[in-house]
Amino acid sequence: MVNVKIDSVYFSLKEEHNFSWLKSFGKVFAVFAQNDSGNISFGVDNGEEKYFIKVAGLKTTESVRTQQEAIAALKAAMPIYEDIKHKNLIKLVKHYSLGEIYVAVFKWTDGDCLFDPWNFEKYKKNPHVLPPAKRFKQLPISKRIESADVLFSFLDTVSKNGYVAVDFYDGSIMYDFARNTTTICDIDFFRKKPTLNDMGEDYWGTKRLKAPEEYVYGAVIDEATNVFTLGALLFDSFFGNYTNAEVRMRYEMNAFTPCSFENWEISKACYDVALKSVSVERSERYASINEFCTAWKAALFE
User: Fold this and answer.
1) 201: number of Cβ within 10 Å
2) Which parts of the sequence belong to the Protein kinase domain (predicted)?
3) Over 90: is that where the pLDDT of 284 sits?
4) Mind giving me the DSSP string for 236-270?
5) Which of 11, 162, 260, 265 could covalently link to 33 via disulfide, CB atoms 3.0 to 4.6 Å apart?
6) Is the pLDDT of residue 73 over 90?
7) Pick the CATH number of 2-107 from 3.30.1330.40, 3.20.20.150, 3.40.525.10, 3.30.200.20
């Protein structure tokens, strides 16, 4: 293990790397080194602009991939960011090979990731510090509804651009509590339509939110799958409340379950719309994000 210090940040790698190339972007003020994707990312400030720089090809401590797999995945993700244009998606600036690594440069966006496992140890040691997910749940309902609107708009844009969202979860969402803005920060695994589950039970995604077909080898993954994902997010991260035991049960059973209406924070009409979106049978869900959005907005105003 190698301990690394760049400017004011510290992190570890399995092997040394010369980071002198980072200096051309400015001063490093943040690092995200504990991802299992094989990537390591930096926040960099040159005094005029801030950048989020994602790097593949280094021997990171938590990676479940080889360096070559991480590079191939990051390269493959770049056209997705170029194809999907949405005001709440992080902006890709450039990407390129640099020796044995691959670099993707994005404009920096302020905010906190709604799922941030790299900080879990900090929360354990400092129980008075609330994770972003809990802070988000304490926002007024109106602010959470505005944030949910962003997800509806974004996923509709994804579909209209010929893609399906894959591995889209609370870790893909950032919220700026100072400005009350929502940013989509990670779409690396999105796929062009049509696509199938080619991994079986290990298909990308968290068991807290995955649709039934995301466990079945050869199953169609499409907009109805994204309807389920968004509905699950509305339950899990926005308006529903679960015990730790209920969350654990999803992992054990390989199945998302909606919370009871008693543990839902907004109207029965909205609950019923969200419930339809997470139907086990695909044919019982809304056929599109747009149809889901129309029903959701109507329920909000009932």
Assistant:
1) 12
2) 14-301
3) yes
4) IIIIB---HHHHHHHHHHT---PPPGGGB-S-HHH
5) 11
6) yes
7) 3.30.200.20
